[in-house]
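Task 17 of the worksheet. Students: predict the tertiary structure of the chain below and write it out as structure tokens. Keep your answer in the requested format; marks are given for formatting as well as content.
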Amino acid sequence: MRARLSDIAQQAEVSEATVSRVLNDRPGVAPETRQAVLTALDVLGYERPARLRKRSAGLVGLVVPELDNPIFPAFAQVIESTLAQSGFTPVLCTQTAGGVTEDEYVEMLLDRQVSGIVFVSGLHADTAANHDRYRALIARPLPVVMINGYVPDVAAPFVSCDDREAADLAVAHLVALGHRRIGLITGPDRFVPVQRKVAGWRAAMTRLAGVAETDLGPLAELTLFGVEGGEAAAGRLLDRGVTGLVCGSDLMALGAVRAARQRGLSVPGDLSVVGYDDSPLMAFTNPPLTTVRQPVTAMAVAAVRALVDEINGHGAPHSEYLFRPELVVRGSTAVAPAAVRFPYARSA
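Model answer:
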């Protein structure tokens, strides 16, 4: 034991006496020092004494739509880590096309007697879906929290990024660069975040770009989420003479960049592109993508805290918490082409 104590003490950079106090669960040890000793035990491969093993507070389901879009793994990582810090064991449920549905995952989670469920961009974001499924869960009662989507008459906490503000930020950035013919590419209009982005884009285009409401229709393309949807929509908007694009996701924005290059156009020389999410690796694309960042960490932590409060009987307010997005300027946007900024200019 002396040798083991010395190893642990050396790893944790504390005295052997301190290690002994921690292992015997004695008072008088600072929380950070206690954690350093427990971490040293884990690193060295020693099993923690039974009295020091943190009991699981239960399982919590985490339902995400898919992992192809890197923003969803980003949410999952923060949610899982925050749940673990609260003593809960996360159960990740990932949907794929033609695979297990959200409702089927919920049934599996209920069979495991989960303490609660976090839904990320689930059917709660789809206005065409039947939301009685969530009311039934709440009536059990089972605590639920939903991220990015809102159903006014479902009594649960909702956490969302302000999509209207996101579209406004993107349009304002492009207008400041001299663009006026600014297109919008986003997903199907039955989704709440899409509806909000469209509303924000329309308001900003009339207020900042001076485009009449009646002229906005041809500048918006609602398509499939993903690279392919963005590419197809960008092609149609390029045919209509846009010089700037506001996209509903980073993947759509990458599709728009691809469409421009296939036509021999330069991004950002001929076309400026703004994404949405600031998902991992967007700073390393070619060109690095200007985007509107979702505050993933803040949103995920807030969602977990609300869920834990619900589980512990401290009832989080049943309303929507809106988080402000942030414009991140990189290399995919630039000053509008001279012919657009100075349409009547003549060569010398």
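Marker's comment: Confidence is low (pLDDT under 50) at residues 342-348. DSSP finds twelve helices and twelve strands in the chain.
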